[in-house]
UniProtKB/TrEMBL annotation:
Protein name, entry field: Enoyl reductase (ER) domain-containing protein
GO molecular function: 2-alkenal reductase [NAD(P)H] activity
Keyword field contains Oxidoreductase: yes
Gene3D superfamilies in UniProt: Medium-chain alcohol dehydrogenases, catalytic domain, NAD(P)-binding Rossmann-like Domain
Pfam families recorded: ADH_N_2, ADH_zinc_N
Domain Enoyl reductase (ER): 43-338
Keywords for the protein's UniProt record, in alphabetical order: Oxidoreductase
Highest taxon of the lineage: Eukaryota
SMART domains: PKS_ER
């Protein structure tokens, strides 16, 4: 029947309005057996790392028609993670294999749709990287920048929220192509990280700028060819004014809007016409079919030190609520990860 163990879980108490708080989540201890029914096609995993991502905030409120379902109050939060297979009734997964994909915010999870999991073959890099540079944020940066924006050597690139899990990669990918890259972030420490660690040509603290459009004009006197947009709102409005003709805007996220009861409007959309811009939103899953191609491209760069990655690791599943909430005040530096267990 399988050994019975206790299982710590992080539950969402109820739907959230405004900025999320740690008290919107609670720790619960349940019990479960370390065995799945033989005919269930499910996989039981032990979670090693959990990923904290901005897209999780909209899932904490009741939404309809969104690309992701709302979390269920009273149930464990779900998100991307790295895990080890404990038991499997699925022919493609075997005990002790390492995987990444959607899992529960708990010590052990039963994965009912294991075909969505990716197997981890290369363990010469930190396993936590599969929540970030080699996971969903990595394929997001790769697909949104290379596939959607079609960058060319010598072009100018602006990345908002540039020190985050996706932004730090986009900037480095742009440098690999031979672009001029500027990023913005919310602290002096993060600005220094962009320039000294990730190799951005320039970076600025958006909180110190009275006029965002003037700031962009300062760094891009001849305009922006590619904008990788993670912020939205006033930032996107300023970007539109500073784009070059035939520029491309990849809309990855709108973190400035996630905690607002009423979203801000964007006022400079006429620039899409006057400058013949292409602005397109996208999801990481759009590029999951390219995952193998992406890994083959980026892994050598990681091992050679040409692409660097910074993580902010919180220890213990009990720290997960604070780690997730911290994303929205800029507390984290780099990719926010929660270490649940060391294999």
């Amino acid at each position: 029947m399988g050994e019975e163990i206790s299982n710590k879980q992080i539950l969402l108490k109820d739907y959230v309005n405004g900025f999320p708080k740690e008290s919107d989540m609670e720790l619960k201890i349940s019990s479960m057996k370390l065995k799945v029914p033989e005919d269930s096609n499910t996989v039981l995993v032990k979670n090693l790392y959990l990923s904290c991502d901005p897209y999780m905030r909209p899932r904490m409120k009741k939404t309809e028609g969104s690309y992701t379902d709302s979390f269920i109050p009273g149930s464990p939060i779900v998100g991307f993670g790295v895990a080890k297979v404990v038991d499997s009734a699925h022919p493609k997964f075997k005990k002790d294999e390492l995987v990444w994909g959607i899992t529960g915010w708990e010590e052990y999870s039963v994965i009912k749709a294991p075909e969505t999991l990716f197997k981890i073959h290369d363990t010469d890099v930190p396993l936590s990287y599969y929540t970030g540079i080699l996971g969903m944020p990595g394929i997001t940066a790769y697909g949104g920048f290379y596939e959607l924006c079609s960058p060319k050597k010598g072009e100018t690139v602006y990345v908002s929220a540039a020190s985050g899990a996706v932004g730090q990669l986009v900037g480095q990918f742009a440098k690999l192509v031979g672009c001029y890259v500027v990023g913005s972030a919310g602290s002096k420490e993060k600005v220094e990280l962009l320039k000294n660690k990730f190799g951005f040509d320039e970076a600025f603290n958006y909180k110190e700028e009275q006029d965002l459009s003037a700031a962009l004009k300062r760094y891009f006197p001849d305009g922006i060819d590619i904008n990788f947009e993670n912020v939205g709102g006033k930032m996107l409005d300023a970007v539109l004014l500073n784009m070059r003709i035939h520029g491309r805007i990849a809309v990855c996220g709108m973190i400035s809007q996630y905690n607002l009861e009423q979203n801000e409007g964007v006022h400079n959309l006429f620039c899409l016409i006057s400058k013949r811009l292409r602005m397109q939103g996208f999801l990481a899953v759009d590029y999951f079919p390219l995952y193998k191609k992406f890994v083959e491209m980026v892994t050598p760069h990681i091992k050679e030190g040409k692409v660097k990655y910074v993580e902010d690791i919180a220890e213990g599943i009990e720290s997960a609520p604070g780690a997730l909430v911290g994303l929205f005040s800029g507390r984290n530096v780099g990719k926010q990860v929660v270490l649940v267990a060391r294999e």
